[in-house]
Amino acid sequence: MGLATTLQTVSDHKKVMVDDTHYSLVSRWLSIYQSSPDWQQIHRKLSDDTMLNRQMMSLNMGEVSAKKMAGLVFNQKANISVSPHSDDDGSKPSSPDDYKAAENEFVQQVLNDNHFFNNFERYLEYMFGTGGIVIRLYTDRGKVKIRFATADAFYPISADANGVSECVIASTFISNNKHYTLLEWHEEDDTAYIVTNEIYQSIDDKGDDLGMKITDWSTLPDAFKNMSPTPTRYSKAVYSQPTFIYLKPNLANNLEINSPLGLPIYANAIDTLKQLDQAYDLLWQEFYMGRRRIIAPDNQLMRTVDPQTGKAKTYVDFQEGVYETYDTTMSGGDGESVKPTDITLPLRNESIVSGINDLLHFYSSQVGFSSDAFTFDSKTGMVTATAVVSENSDTYQTKNSHETLIEDAIKHMCQSIVELAKNDPAVKYSGQTDIDVSVNFDDSIAKDRDENLKFFMTANGNRPVMTQLEAIKRANNLTDVEAQQWLADIQAEQANAEGDIDDVVGNGNKDGEDNA
């Protein structure tokens, strides 16, 4: 709806710092992610002056690569832990008590209540596909809430070295066939972070305009009953940061150098995406055009009478899709002695599949994966993603690069959670706001453990590279104390098993002696 331009004219607030040019790019990136870019619509005039209108077949590599990257950087096995801030140097062993801290238990409860681990991986896919997401935190009826918004709903107002510091978040609603837009203004002054809600009702029945600002909130539908037009102030004396976090892929924005907003991972590979769709569509066309064809003289085929003109004409049973006719009189023959001829062309599917794989290798490198990350399987017709087998691979390095910003965003989110809880009397929270946050990304899906073990064993002269205690700790993401308990249990089981066997063997010998 051209919202960026509209927001620049709102006199009650600061002006947004981007124009609609960026959001036209976001719209295009979103269409690619949704597998509906403009190049997939084919409109071609045929020789008989009719129009061919169809949608191109698509590999949808924009969505495939975004999903793959999101799954690599964050998944259900990732671990987020919170503890009271400590000034030690990190050499103190962890213990089970760390997980029982009020700060950690509260944050874990908030994450579970908001289904964070499920939602975050999904929104990371949107982030890699459209250039960014925003995490919004607030309290509602004694609970800390986590809400997400996509790149097309986020409008920056100001930015500093730490990223976007003020913004507008737009949300649309439909109630009783009326279109509403909620604008959530996040601003700041010298003493507080300020959040102001404004609601507009569209004048256009399709909701294509922002419309008029609602001044009487009592007329609004129930969807807005828990909101207030009164600005909410978050004092900087107790809040260390705004209650939103803008997160983007760790890529330089080479399309808009001065923009604080991000790019999707395929922003500079759109031409390759187009070529991939064209090649895949060509493969489909190859099978379609490669069906059997037989040409025959028209006087050898069935005839019928056109009821409108009364003239006889030949026709082909197009259910079979085999025969094509031609007029033999054009070559001076009568067609009686001419036999039907098979003109079926050989398929070129192998060369097309080879071309698709070449494009996939090029595309993989463009978006930060290793060149062999994606492969098109001609047997299943699907794109498969190979595993990362080396810490030196491009995929693994790109994954770690994105995790840097994601880890920072998660730490800021946890900080906002405890600050919101501490300063809202309706929220039951007994911990402190000075916390340390640890984020452990699960690398098991990105590493080949056998390859890593082989490397370290070879480097260590084929001798053990770690103690059994350390192996148990790393393999199961345990603390030092928990790993020690596991090792003690394993050793106890082994001792009991060995004792049982000795007893059985010993009793057998005695029985034999007694019987003798």
Overview of this structure, please?
- The model is unreliable at 510-516 (pLDDT under 50).
- Strands 6, 7, 8, 9, 10 and 11 form a six-stranded antiparallel sheet that branches. A three-stranded antiparallel sheet has the order 5-4-12. A three-stranded mixed sheet has the order 16-13-17, with no helix packed on it.
- The termini are far apart.
- Strand 18 and strand 19 (382-385) form a beta hairpin.
- The chain has helices spanning 3-7, 20-33, 61-73, 102-113, 116-130, 270-289, 349-366, 394-422, 449-459, 468-476, 480-515, and strands at residues 41-45, 51-55, 79-84, 133-140, 143-150, 154-160, 163-175, 178-188, 192-201, 212-213, 232-235, 244-247, 294-297, 303-305, 312-314, 323-326, 341-342, 374-377, 382-385, 435-440.
- With 516 residues, the chain is α+β, with helices and mostly antiparallel strands.
- It folds into three domains: 3-269 and 392-440, no CATH class; 270-385, no CATH class; 466-515, no CATH class.
Topology at a glance:
Elements: H1 3-7, H2 20-33, E1 41-45, E2 51-55, H3 61-73, E3 79-84, H4 102-113, H5 116-130, E4 133-140, E5 143-150, E6 154-160, E7 163-175, E8 178-188, E9 192-201, E10 212-213, E11 232-235, E12 244-247, H6 270-289, E13 294-297, E14 303-305, E15 312-314, E16 323-326, E17 341-342, H7 349-366, E18 374-377, E19 382-385, H8 394-422, E20 435-440, H9 449-459, H10 468-476, H11 480-515
Parallel strand pairs: 13-16
Antiparallel strand pairs: 1-2, 3-20, 4-5, 4-12, 6-7, 7-8, 8-9, 9-10, 9-11, 13-17, 14-15, 18-19
Helix pairs in contact: 3-5, 6-7, 10-11
Quick recap:
With 516 residues, the chain is α+β, with helices and mostly antiparallel strands.
